[in-house]
Records
---
Amino acid sequence: MNKKKEEKKSKLLFGKKNYTIMLIGLAVIGLGFVLMAGGGSDNPDVFNEEIYNFRRIRLAPTLVIIGLGIEIYAIMAKSSK
């Protein structure tokens, strides 16, 4: 009876630590995409220079790449099983 409970309990592919790291990575990726949004112009005939600021060109893509690195680490990290 105990073996059946252990089998049902260990159905998840990763451990709790891995899923926590994955959620952190998804949050960092999401933050990167939120920071990348905006900067457009209401009038299509007027060019808005704000689209080329530091936040959209450097910070946001860097956060997305860091988030992807966190996701890779979460997948590769040894689970606590």
---
Amino acid sequence: MLYYLFNYLDKQFDMPGAGAFQYISTRAALAIILSLTISMVFGKRLIEMLRRMQVAETVRNLGLEGEKQKQGTPTMGGLIILGAILLPTLLFARLENVYIILIVISTIWLGLVGFIDDYIKVFKKNKEGLAGRFKIMGQVGLGIIVATTLYYNENVKMREFYKPDQVTSEFIEQNKLETTIIDNQFLLAKDVRSTVTTVPFFKKTYFDYADILKFIGENYKDYNYWIYLLVVIFIITAVSNGANITDGIDGLAAGTSAIIGVTLGVFAYVSGNILFSKYLNIMYIPHLGEMVIFAGAFVGACVGFLWYNAYPAQVFMGDTGSLALGGIIASFALMVRKELLIPILCGIFLIENLSVILQVYYFKYQKRKHGIEYAREHRLFKMSPLHHHYQKSGYHESKIVTRFWIIGIMLAIFTILTLKIR
């Protein structure tokens, strides 16, 4: 909203400093500052309100150190994160931008699903919360929205460039190529709608999901939407569940998400900037740069939340925050067309997810082969998810969180390096 106000003041009254709001970097910086302020200042008031309302987490008895001290800690702190993300985005971003609209919907959508889950746990006194099938329905619903928008919306395009000597005059006329000058170089360009994504480690190599169906014949592209829809639903469901599982000890999910958010912001900036994308030889996506403002608000909200969530936590984010964080990260990665990098970038979420899956299947295998007692005594991990395994091994949770953050930073740096390692 403020973008439009200062744009008007700049054009009509030549107001000093108003032109700075035209720059993505200025608005992203302001979004970070405001989201941090909201998290730290208004977060305290919300925590006090949650305490008065007795919105407390019921901590399961898992035999872990420090469990009793956490009993009664307010939950639903994800409301702090959601507010600190949405308000700066609405104030500083260009609200007609399709990517901003879609990521705001993603934030609210899974935030609402998580809120309903927390509400049932806290106010209805049902420890199970929202039934798993309804959570999956919410994730699938968001997947349908994201996939349909990215596939059909006219404003979601990538730009292809050609050198004049690479194409014929007939090709130029048929494809309605436009002339553009980048770094004093004369090029021809056209915007195309496509489901192609970036393949890591390979230069100028893109993968179109429609290619999976080549085996069915010449009309395989007619089914492109359906294969893309399945991929998007899988990614959103996997990442949001991964973030949800990771939210098990103080500061782990928020800190890890902040690291991921910085990386996605870098990708949005270079992919949405025609000069950087040409220099790095990566896909240029018009209008994507606006997502840097959202990334700034996202990172600021996560870091600001750590003010109260770092050990010992004064508030838990609950599913209100964790499901929303995962959905945001998945949707963002799809928009910047870097979803194939999710296993690296979201490596912490991945190993947490895998630890649960492996624990369950290994237990079932041992039970079937040796019986229930043997299976209980010979579990793959002392407890899953993985962070609880290390707690059972005697590590303090603040040490576990710090080391997971360090691993997350290493994974994030390696993910960014894929821009050059190709």
---
Amino acid sequence: MPEQRIMKLPGRKRRNKKIDFRAMHETERLLRGLGLHTVCVQARCPNISECFNRKTATFLILGDICTRRCGFCGVRHGMPGPVDPYEPGRVVEAAARMGLRHLVATSVTRDDLDDGGAGMFAELIRRLREHDSSLKVEVLVPDFRGDESAAATVALAGPDIFGHNIETVPSLYPAKKGGDYNRSLAVLSCAKACAPGLRTKSGLLLGLGETEAEVVAVFHDLRSVGCDYLSIGQYLQPGRLNLPVREYVSPEAFERYKIKAHEAGFFHVESGAYVRSSYLAERYEQRS
């Protein structure tokens, strides 16, 4: 039998989960062998052990170096290298070998590219559809510097879910370097306008100093642009140079936010300390 232990995850207290370390390391080796990056590793996600154990991961395309330096993000920043045209093929290979039924792909922000990387997202979606037309494909895109044609390129490529994270409330947007709150709303609005049947999704991290009234106002702003799905999680400082945690949100507050988000009209909401936008992503389509 594979070795199993109880994994103690960092941060707030949570229900212990049995982790099959053999399965987890198999996923690590597969991804490393294909030369693929994941947001699980690069952003130091607290759910990495659980997700790798379940043989799933969130693929990080367009390299592992971001052109922005957001205060809450653990991904490396600087000047990225050239785009790898063979990357989509390797993601397809990983999807096949992992037996994925729901694949999530995101990217670093590439302000150095004319289209912000939209063409690579579209190519990946096309290649995945050719591989398996029944595979659910979810993308989590940057803001493309407000370029609506880039957002449209991705939306019209036909993902099942088009995601863009609002991240935080407007008053705290200085933490999202190079970001703009209204621009982020516009990305989601553009995707829905281009492909009206497309499900759109966004995510919030709490504990950066926001108020409850500000959070609820964001719910309504997201619904005003037709956002269908929402994830709400606790910000956990990924490194000593990142912004400090201002508050650990209680389980009761997360449940209250979930209720308020449903009241605002979201089709599906995940809310809890360890929730991230791609964590248990398959649930959104199953429960909407």
---
Amino acid sequence: MIRSRLLASIAVVEKRTALYETHRELGAKMTEFSGFSMPLAYGKGTIEEHLAVRGASGVFDVSHLGTVEVSGDAAFHRLQANLTNDLGKIEPGRTQYTHLLDETGSVVDDIIVWWLDDQLFHVMPNAANTSNVTGAIGGRDITASRVVLAIQGPAARSALAEVAGTAGPARNCVVPFEFAGASGYVAGTGYTGGDGVEVAITPEAGIRLFNALARQGVEPCGLGARDTLRLEAGLPLHGHELGGGITPLNANLGWVVAFSKADFPGRAALLRQKERGADPILAGFATGTRQPLRAGDRLLGGDGTDAGWISSGGYSPLRKEGIGLGFVHGEALGRKDLAVVRGDRRLPVQPVAYPFVELKSR
């Protein structure tokens, strides 16, 4: 009994990225996320980090995300047969956003594919879903062999050029990258909605690159800012806008689904949903005040009828008001009398288009 309890306690010990000690040295407040101990925010706080990325540049440790290497003659066809988007639309040296579904059409995970060479792909799932993805597509989990840094913001490329001699590739492209004697890749991708790049490289070189960028004035940023930035940009988060019972069509992400290609898991279910119409549908909301919306808030009509729920919410530092993404039942779409209720207080919300702010990327 004592042995089983000890083994159970060991099983829930949080994982650490190679940058864990660096985060601690910089005074980061750490939090558990998908089994990893990750920085929530540094000394300046989430809002200042958010504004640094929108106005200049920030660097995030996103090494908790997975990397699955799929290679060989059958790699392309294996991914085509299991993922929703059509790799035939791109070529080596490009990246693609795609989904892995179950047979009901629910999103098992949303994924970025880096097509590195003719027969070499790096498939990047969310941290908690790496084993689900390898179970579906095979491949080799190489997550522990690299770190991934997201350098984001309008000045991110110039900062990377100062430190590493390259500004990185154009949006949705990926090229080889070298730093501190190590080889890796840099992609024109990110999760903030604005311009930026992501670097995958060995842990030792990644630590040196993170510190060099910080010395260059790039703001170290935590998960708090990563969430507020992606929310402002109207980007989905697995477990909130994607997951069990939620299809790409519910989440307004039908463009990720290539119905014209050969069969893939969930295709038949999506075709049936497409024919009858998706319900509920993801929509954007704002409070018009500094009061933030919160995930789990119930949306009610003026007559008290259930209209849906808020899937992600928070405060937008650029709009200076509370914003949120939420799922709305078809009959409630466009209603102007929606509100969330907290205790005996009713907080009106206004339907607004998302992304919530206008952003530019290279």
